[in-house]
Amino acid sequence: xxxxxxTTLLLWVxxxxxGGNYSTVKVKAxxxxxxxxxxxxxxxxxxxxxxxxxxxxxxxxxxxxxxxxKACHASGGGKVVVPAGTWLSGPIHFKSNVxxxxxxxxxxxxxxxxxxxxxxxxxxxxxxxxYNYSPLVYAFECENIAISGKGTLQxxxxxxxxxxxxxxxxLLALRELYTxxxxxxxxxxxxxxxxxxxLRPHLIHFNRCSNVLLEDFNIRNSPFWxxxxxxxxxxxxxxxxxxxxxxxxxxxxxxxSRNFLVEDCxxxxxxxxxxxxxxxxxxxxxxxxxxxxxxxxxxTILNGHALLAIGSEMSGGIRNVYMHxxxxxxxxxxxxxxxxxxxxxxxxxxIIMENVSSGNTMRLLEIDTDVLYQWKDLVPTxxxxxxxxxxxxxxxxxxxxxxxxxxxxxxxxLPVKKVRISNLRINKVNQFIRKITHAHDVKAKRMHIxxxxxxx
Length: 456
Description:
Helix 5 links the parallel strand 28 (347-368) and strand 29 (388-409). 12% of the residues lie in helices and 48% in strands. The longest helix is centred in the N-terminal third of the chain and has 17 residues, at 2-18. It has a 27-stranded parallel beta sheet that branches. It has a two-stranded antiparallel sheet with strand order 1-2. A two-stranded antiparallel ribbon has the order 9-10. By secondary structure, the protein is mainly beta.
């Protein structure tokens, strides 16, 4: 906590000393949340065409975009403009005080040649820090950065899609990375961009950044997680239209980050839509940075495994998450899903969902403390730490149909505590109302169910 307060104070002092011009976004939430600073970028414009960029989708514009960003940063900040047209590029690396503006009908078409995303950069892969292929859009330790405009980020996927399966060499690489993280091997020695490891890069990965703005643009496809905000402090994700149906295509992942607003977005995903994470096992215990003070509002999820997912990488702790006035009108596997396992430790507390609606789902609310996916038999348990889960709230929900209303699978060693469910209006329940194991103080009231095939 002292680290977070100190970081926030440094941010405000930096703003005062540099004379930075910011607007503030005050977000209503049922917990204390600092106003979010939104940097007002200078009017200086750096058009990528002036740095040698050529439209058409054949000429590689990596150098031109890099040079425009470098010049913008050196001048004190401003806007790097991508005009209408299709612009082929490799990785885009941000510098502070830069707004990448995608004008209407502008498409950045990212190359899918892995060698263009070398040398490796410091990133993370499913909650473990490492050096891997550069994300397609990458920022490290930057402040005051933005992507805005009506244009589109659109990776070419022909090659990346070949990396979607998990063959033996890929699983061996995951085991190697897991072992290094579990035994505290320094991050710079965790070099994963080699051989047949095939650890796909994120589309957008902002690492240890502050004052982030992502606004108005479209995303079509992603090699891996789509938007990953990792150990970032303060930002707004607004009016995005995100569609990515490949393997592990989460919509937006906020990991060990704080003080963020996600609003007015449309997500159409091949995995979870809005995901709150906080690192994996020993790596997260080392970093000791909770994910906290996150508000998600007025978003629509067209497809996804979960509307709101907490975990399963959450070892640094997650608290103060508030989702409201969001909907999944079609079908999602789980509407509100909290997942962890006996290796994670950490805590999940004060998670609130209200005034939301769902079409069809397998579970409206599920809490599962034994989610290990492919890691269950791939790697051993180096240390057991049980996750404390307390203060989960879900109210004012409408749903067309669900297989089960709520299912809580706690851990006998540290049962789930204080779950409140109220005012649910459900048209049809296909299998069951509730299943509870290893949970205390679970209260549900005012559930209006028009039709169900099982006895209460």
